[in-house]
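Researcher: We're teaching a course module on how sequence relates to structure. For the next exercise, students receive a sequence and then see the predicted structure as tokens, so they can try to spot secondary structure elements on their own. Here is the exercise chain.
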Amino acid sequence: MSKYELALVVNAKIEDDARTEVIDKIKAMIEGYNATITNVDEWGKKKLAYEIQKMKEGYYYFIQFEASTDVPAEIEQRLRIAEPVLRFLCVKQDA
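Model: And here is the predicted structure for the students to work with:
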């Protein structure tokens, strides 16, 4: 099992309940690949460095998890089609 961190920028124009639901679905998806979530860090609403889909702000989330090496590619493939997710990046953390 390797340690990974998933950084997400979620659309700031959706309701709080919908945003919470999106994050819960992403956490459930990660756990569905037999991964263990170790930490979820919510940074809140921040100004974006540049406009994405005509939006200037987004909600930032960082999810740390432990998983096998094939899981990040599967997660990224699923996140590409997730509409409320503006940007994402999954990186392997040092042991």
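Model: If you want an answer key for the exercise: The CA atoms of residues 11 and 89 lie 15 Å apart. The beta strands are 2-11, 36-52, 55-67, 85-92.
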